[in-house]
Specification:
The longest helix has 14 residues. A hairpin with a 2-residue loop joins strand 1 and strand 2. A two-stranded antiparallel ribbon has the order 1-2. It is α+β, with helices and mostly antiparallel strands. The termini are far apart. Helices cover about 30% and strands about 35% of the residues. It has 1 helix and 2 strands.
């Protein structure tokens, strides 16, 4: 699977801040975490 963004906490935080600024009433819920092939896979629902 190809990464859409560079990895790292700083990049993730910057993307999260941009969503919060653009969508003030956005609700984000982590719905699942799976560990397959040694790497975590996070599943999120945005509403």
């Amino acid at each position: 699977m190809m990464a859409l963004l560079p990895s790292g906490g700083t990049t993730i935080a910057a993307v999260a801040r941009s969503f919060i600024a653009a969508f003030l009433d956005l609700r984000v819920v982590m719905t699942d975490v799976r560990i397959e092939t040694g790497a975590p896979e996070y599943h999120w629902t945005l509403s």
